[in-house]
Amino acid sequence: MTNRITRQRLLLSVSSTLTALMLCASVQTQASAPTSDFSTKPPTTDTTSSSTYVTHFWDALALEPQNAWSQLRKSFAWQDQQLSAQARVRVDQWIAHYRSSPENIATITQRAAPWLAFITQQVEARNLPGEIALIPFIESSFDPSARSHRGAAGLWQFMPGTGDALGLVRNGHYDGRLDVITSTQAALDYIEMQADQWYEGDLPLSLAAYNAGAGTVNRAVRNAQSQGKSGHYWNLQLPNETMQYVPKLHAIAAIVANPERYNVSLPEIEAEPTFAKVQLSHALTLREASRLLDVEQSALTKLNPGLLNGAIDPRSAQTLLVPDETSHEMIARLSQGEPQSAQVATSAPDTYRVERGDNLSTIAARHNLTQQHIMRLNAIERPDTLQPGQLLTLSDS
Asked: Which InterPro entries does its entry note (predicted)?
C-alpha cells in the first residue's frame, strides 16, 4: 500500500538519523568522559561544542513523558498533509465544533482510557496512520457497549451483517462486536482489505467505504472521474455523514496532536494496556471469576462487554480480560487447580487445527494475530477457503 511504503521509508529515515546521533553521542562521551547525566547540568553556552548538540538531543528526547497520547502522536501521519483550501475549511469547522464543547472531549477521552493504548499498538503493528486509532471517537464516543438505532454496535459500530461477514460471533451469550479485542482486529482487517481491494491503498476512500459502504463510494469515484476529477475522497459527492467522516477524524487528531493550542485537557492514560488476556477452556461466570481473582465484578464486566449474560463460554469466546494488576497466582485459580488451562496470553502457538465453524477472522482474534499474517504464512489467497481439519501455521519461527 502507498501509505505503508511512505511510512516505512519515513521510519527508516528516522531510525537512521537516530542511530547516527547515538553514535555521535557515544564518541563524544568517550572523548569527554562526563561525570554527571545531562538532565542535571544546564547546557553550555558554547554553541560550537558538539557536546552541547548531544545534550540538546537527549534533552529533547526526554521532553514529553511517555503515555498513551505521546505514543499515539508518534504514529500520526496526516498532521503535515497539505490539504486543499476547501478541505481545510471542512476540517477547521469540526475543530471549532469540538472546541466549543471541551467537556465532551474530556468525557470521551476519559472513556477511551482502558482501550487507547491497546488500539494504538494494533494500529502501529500494521503500519497504519495513528489517526485510525481515533475512529472509535467518531463511531461510538469510545463506548464499547454503544448501540445505534440502526443496529450498529460496539466501539467500531459494526452492523450485524458486516460483523457476521467478518466472523464476529453473535449469539444470545456473546456479541463479538462488543468485544474490544476481536472487534478491533476485525475493524482494522476491514479497513485494510477494502483499501487494498478497491482503492489501491487509499485509506481516506477506505474510511468512507467503512462508513457508507464500498458500493456508494465506488459510484461516487466513478462520477467524479467522469467529470475529470481525481476521484480522491475530498473531491467526492457522498452522503452527508460520509462527507463529514474524514474531516472529523482529521479534526480530533489535530486536537490530540496539540491540545494546548486548542485549550483542551486530555486525561492521563498509561502507555501500556491496563488489562491482561486470560485464555480459558471452560465456562466461567464473571461472579466466580471475581471471587477467584479477588477483583470487583464491575471491573470484569467493564472489560468484557461482549459477554451478554455475565459468563464466558469457550464455544463463543475464549479470552477473558482482567485488570493488569491481577497476579498470575490469582489468574491460575481460575482453572480450579489446573493452572495450565488458564494462562495469561503472551504469544500465539505455532500451529492451529481448523475446526468446523471457524473462520480466519475469529482464529486471528483468538491468537492476537492479523488475518493478513495468517494468510501470508499459509499462502492463503482467499479467507473463505478454510476447511475443517486444515493445519495452519501461526508463527514465523
From this structure: LysM, LysM_dom_sf, Lysozyme-like_dom_sf, Transglyc_AS, Transglycosylase_SLT_dom_1
The catalytic residue among 131, 139, 260, 272 is: 139
Burial (CB count within 10 angstroms: exposed 0-12, middle 13-18, buried 19+), residue 52: middle
What kind of fold does domain 70-257 have according to CATH?
A: Lysozyme (1.10.530)
Other CB atoms within 10 A of residue 200 CB: 10
270 is catalytic: no
Residues paired with 351 in a beta bridge: 393
Alpha helices in the chain (DSSP H): 2-32, 50-61, 68-74, 85-99, 102-111, 116-125, 135-139, 160-165, 180-198, 203-212, 214-226, 240-257, 286-293, 297-303, 328-332, 360-366, 371-377
Q: Pick from 179, 117, 192: which is nearest to 366 by CA?
A: 179
Interval 203-250: pLDDT, tens = 999 999 999 999 999 999 999 999 999 999 999 999 999 999 999 999
* Bigger pLDDT: 139 vs 292: 139
The domain made up of 351-393 is a member of CATH 3.10.350.10: yes
pTM, entire model: 0.71
Residue 239, Cβ neighbours under 10 Å: how many? 15
